[in-house]
Amino acid sequence: MTGTDQRTGARASGPLGAFYAGNARSVMLRGWQATRSTNWLVVVSGFFEPIFYLLSMGLGLGALVGTITTESGQEVPYAAFIAPALLAVAAMNGAIYDSTWNVFFKMQFAKLYEGMLATSLGPLDVALGEISLALLRGALYATGFLVVMQALGLNLSWWALLALPAVLLIAFGFASVGMAVTSFMKTFQQMDWITFLLLPMFLFSATFYPLSVYPQPIQYVIQALPLWHGVELVRGLTTGQVDAGMLWHVLYYLVMILLGLIFTTRRLRTLFLD
Amino acid sequence: MPEPVIVAQNLVKKYQDFAAVDGISFEVAPGESFGLLGPNGAGKSTTMRLVGAVSTRTGGDLRVLGLDPNRYGPEIRSRLGVVPQADNLDTELRVRENLLVYGRYFGLPRAQVARRTDELLAFAQLEDKAKSKVDALSGGMKRRLTIARALINDPSILLLDEPTTGLDPQARHILWDRLFRLKEQGTTLLLTTHYMDEAEQLCDRLVVIDNGVIMAEGAPAQLIRTYSSREVLEVRFGSDLNADVAAQIAGMGDRIEVLPDRILIYSENGESELVRIVDAGLTPITSLVRRSSLEDVFLRLTGRTLIE
């Protein structure tokens, strides 16, 4: 048996051999081609959504609210308070859209992954490729939004430059978990649950007002949710309130990324390489 | 004899308690065109998935290109071409892009993939459609594109799962012609079908599968010789009468099969059996003498028809 294998010159697959061919690039390339030839309009529309929120709530509502005091006691204009939150939300939404509805469609209807996994690609190539594409899109949105924030004078510190990698981290976390969750979904109704969970998280994660307005028990709940960590991380950077405690937010997302990737890879393997 | 490219020994695939493949053994030689013939649910597609290294066997042994698919999945898949039962072309990409992108999945260099893409578009007779959307193609064209895609990595074995199911007769003949060319060029083909004419056209050798087990194995002509007579007389007396008539003509020919809509009389000479029936005072509504086919082999082996 081993003799045969040696004769044909195939190397024994390493521990990752069955999962990863080191070719996630080709999956990204495919996504880029597909975007170019069919759905670039959807991509462009995603860019404007957070900007509209910022203009209506930040500038409109902000005129009534005036300034607001952050967790660390700094007084900032209302628009500068919610802009980083909207940036984190945009990262979440972009990543979730790409990793849930898009992935769901490709899995259930287009049979795209079935085709990919009949080649030498492994499930981790597919997962990383799809997620990287979502990140690339997130990076584009985030850069555009940061430029708008700069133009409106809402970046209060040079730390704001680090908001870009922070946003990518957030997008990576949501994309990775989103794809893992989606791989368990079978119907459109189940997919709607995702939207059902995301909306309250968007509204209540200290997005539009400080966490301190809640009673203590509610604060714990909010602090357990991923978006709050994202909002706090980005807000700390764009307002210049940087401290070592922010590393906890980073750690939260690193764990999300890792868990998401593990579940996605294993699930894709179960689904398409049983 | 050259070393076989596929060796299956007592291959088993179970899903919970259900054995989709229940101990089948076969070998495929390089350049051979080998068929798995059987009705829906016989275990053909599961066998294809096992050979295609996208499914892990539950028992028995399997070697594809000398390697164990359970351990060398990616290596094996890089040398296979797969045409799945249902088209899974990338509908977000145009025809030519489908080939270019698929080639990159194998990690092949861009220039090589581009060259191969042009050759394959010509082979699949889709040069005019290179820039079309996939959804705009006819069923036959989609299948040809899927076959072209499966050839992008110059595979050692081409796996075809029901390659012409759902196509109209003309599209099927075009496809057979293409597959026949591949066969002439020495490509090893492993195909499943429930069409006996397809198996007869394309397969050097085949196994008849039912309920996950092999019922018979051989070349199409040899199987027909072994399990059926040279000719078949088909007579119809109307649905209500068939059973009564069958009792009256019992003993005619080598063997008689009564189907809901017709009676089959197996014989070396169909015409003379028809004369005997008419002499017995019976008048069939329609009668037809034909050569035995794999359909008859299957009926003999399982008591059922292939397409129900």
UniProtKB/TrEMBL annotation, chain A:
Enumerate the UniProt keywords alphabetically.
Antibiotic resistance, Cell membrane, Membrane, Transmembrane, Transmembrane helix, Transport
* Localization annotation: Cell membrane; Membrane
Q: Which Pfam family is one of this chain's hits?
A: ABC2_membrane
- Which segments constitute the ABC transmembrane type-2 domain? 41-271
Membrane topology term: Multi-pass membrane protein
Assigned protein family: Belongs to the ABC-2 integral membrane protein family.
The identity of this protein, by name, is Transport permease protein
The record lists the organism as Cryobacterium sinapicolor
From TrEMBL, chain B:
Q: How does it sit in the membrane?
A: Peripheral membrane protein
MF (Gene Ontology):
ATP binding
UniProt keywords (A-Z) are: Antibiotic resistance, ATP-binding, Nucleotide-binding, Transport
Q: Boundaries of each ABC transporter domain copy?
A: 6-236
Give its localization: Cell membrane
Q: Which residues cross the membrane?
A: none
Q: Which PANTHER family match?
A: ABC TRANSPORTER ATP-BINDING PROTEIN (PTHR42711), ABC TRANSPORTER ATP-BINDING PROTEIN NATA (PTHR42711:SF5)
What the record says about family reads: Belongs to the ABC transporter superfamily.
Q: What is this protein called?
A: ATP-binding cassette domain-containing protein
Q: Which organism is it from?
A: Cryobacterium sinapicolor
